[in-house]
Design brief:
Order of helices and strands: EHEEEEEHEHEEEEHEEEEHHEEEHHHHH
Distance between the termini: 54 Å
Largest sheet: 8 strands, mixed
Radius of gyration: 22 Å
Number of helices: 11
Number of domains: 3
Structural class: alpha/beta
CATH topology of the largest domain: FAD/NAD(P)-binding domain
Helix content: 25-40%
Strand content: 25-35%
CATH class of the largest domain: Alpha Beta
CATH architecture of the largest domain: 3-Layer(bba) Sandwich
Number of strands: 18
Length: 395
C-alpha cells in the first residue's frame, strides 16, 4: 500500500477537509486520512457558529447541515440580569446551530468533489524524514502499516496534534490554557429558542456555560471551566448539573446525549510550519481562547494551508516561501483577534461575580442602540466607574 502523493492531510474534521479541498483545487494530488470509521463522529462541539464566516470559506447556508437559526444571544450575569445581543445591536455575529456530524461530512464531500482521495480508519503513526525534511508519514490502516510519501504534510489532527509534536514544533500547554468541557443534548427544555443563553461568573469558573438551541424544545446545554480553577476535569459535571438543577426551564428536560473533552484556550503556536509540514486549526492552537470556538479558524487556516501546499508543489519549493506565506496569511487574518481574546480570557479568570453583575447591568440600563466596545465602556463609566479600569484596554 506504499504510495506517493503531493499533499497528505491528517485529520478529516473541518480543518482537514477544507485543506484537502483547496489543495486539490490548486492542482495537487491529495490524500486525506481519518482515524475514525466515520467522519463527523463522535461530535464534540457546541455546534453554534456565527453567520459572518460562511462566505469567507466559500459556503452557503444549507439545511443539509444547519438545524436552527437564532436572532442572537442572552448574556446572563450571576445575579440573573440578562443582556440581549441580537443582530440589530451586534451585526452578523449572531448565527446558526449546526448538525456537526452532517457539517463535517458535507466538507469531506466537498474535498472529494475537488479531487481529494479519502481514507477512513487510517491514522498517522509517525513522520518520514530525509535530510531534515519531512517527506511524508508512516500510516496505519486496520493493523497494516504503509508509507505515504508527500511533498507536504498538513497536520489537522486537533489540539493534541501528534503531527506537530513529531515535527518538533513546541506544543506544550499550561493548565490555565486548557478548558474542561461537558455538554448534554437535552429534550423537553423550555426557553426562548430565538436566543442562545450564555451564563457567566462562578457558575462556570474561568469560562462560561451555554444553551444552544437545536429546536423549540431541544438544546445543547454545556459548560467550559478553566482547568486552573478546578481540582479535576470531573468537577465540570458538578458545575453543569448545579446550573441545570437551579434553572427550572432546564431541570425539566431529559438528557439524550453526553459528550466531554478538553479545549485549548491558549495563544497560537509560535511556529505552525516546519520543512514539509503545516499545522492548521486546533493543531496550531487557532481556537478562540475566549469562546473556545474553533470551526471558523479551522476552516480559514485549512484553506490557507491547502492553498500554500498546492503552491509549494506547483513551484517545487517545499521548504521556504509557501510555508512562510501560510504563516503570514493566518497571522494577518487571525492573530490580532486571538491575542486580544486571550487577554480578555486571562482577565476573566480573576473577575468576581459582583463585577460582572455591575458591568452587565450598566449596559442593560444604558440601552445602547448598538453594542460596541465604546458603548459598553461608556455605560460602565457612567454607572460604575469604580470597575472601569478592569475593562479598559480589553474592549
Amino acid at each position: 500500500m506504499d504510495r506517493t502523493v503531493d499533499v497528505l492531510v491528517v485529520g478529516a474534521g473541518p480543518t482537514g477537509s477544507t485543506a484537502a479541498k483547496y489543495a486539490a483545487r490548486g492542482g495537487a494530488d491529495v490524500l486525506l486520512i481519518e482515524k475514525r470509521s466515520e467522519i463527523g463522529t463522535p461530535v464534540r462541539c457546541g455546534e453554534g457558529v456565527a453567520k459572518r464566516w460562511l462566505d469567507e470559506i466559500g459556503l452557503s447556508p444549507s439545511t443539509e447541515f444547519i438545524c436552527h437559526e437564532v436572532d442572537g444571544a442572552r448574556v446572563v450575569a450571576p445575579d440573573g440580569t440578562a443582556l440581549i445581543v441580537d443582530e440589530t445591536r451586534a451585526g452578523n455575529e449572531c448565527g446558526y446551530v449546526l448538525e456537526r456530524d452532517l457539517f463535517d461530512r458535507h466538507l469531506a464531500k466537498e474535498a472529494a468533489k475537488a479531487g481529494a482521495e479519502i481514507l477512513i480508519k487510517t491514522s498517522a503513526a509517525g513522520l518520514l524524514r530525509e535530510d531534515g525534511q519531512v517527506v511524508g508519514a508512516r500510516c496505519e490502516h486496520m493493523g497494516d502499516h504503509f508509507d505515504v510519501r508527500a511533498g507536504v504534510v498538513i497536520g489537522a489532527d486537533g489540539f493534541e496534534s501528534q503531527v506537530g509534536r513529531w515535527a518538533g514544533l513546541e506544543t506544550h500547554l499550561r493548565t490555565r490554557d486548557i478548558a474542561a468541557c461537558l455538554q448534554y443534548t437535552m429534550v423537553g427544555v423550555n426557553g426562548d429558542p430565538r436566543h442562545h443563553d450564555i451564563y457567566l461568573g462562578s457558575c462556570a469558573p474561568g469560562g462560561y456555560a451555554w444553551v444552544f438551541w437545536k429546536s423549540d424544545d431541544t438544546a445543547n446545554v454545556g459548560i467550559g471551566v478553566n482547568l486552573s480553577k478546578i481540582r479535576d476535569r470531573a468537577e465540570a459535571k458538578r458545575y453543569l448539573d448545579d446550573l441545570i438543577g437551579r434553572t427550572p426551564s432546564l431541570a425539566k428536560g431529559e438528557i439524550i446525549e453526553e459528550v466531554a473533552g478538553a479545549v485549548s484556550v491558549s495563544m497560537p503556536l509560535e511556529r505552525t510550519a516546519a520543512p514539509g509540514v503545516l499545522l492548521a486549526g486546533d493543531a496550531a492552537r487557532l481556537i478562540d481562547p475566549l469562546t473556545g470556538g474553533g470551526i471558523l479558524n479551522g476552516c480559514l487556516s485549512g484553506k490557507y494551508a491547502g492553498e500554500a501546499a498546492a503552491n509549494a508543489v506547483a513551484t517545487g519549493d517545499l521548504r521556504d516561501r509557501p510555508f512562510v506565506e501560510y504563516e503570514r496569511r493566518w497571522k494577518a487574518r487571525l492573530e490580532e483577534e486571538l491575542a486580544s481574546h486571550y487577554l480578555i480570557k486571562e482577565r476573566l479568570l480573576h473577575l468576581e461575580d459582583e463585577t460582572i453583575n455591575k458591568a452587565i447591568r450598566s449596559v442593560v440600563e444604558a440601552k445602547p442602540e448598538r453594542i460596541t466596545a465604546g458603548t459598553v465602556l461608556e455605560a460602565i463609566r457612567t454607572r460604575h466607574p469604580e470597575i472601569l479600569s478592569v475593562f479598559e484596554g480589553l474592549l
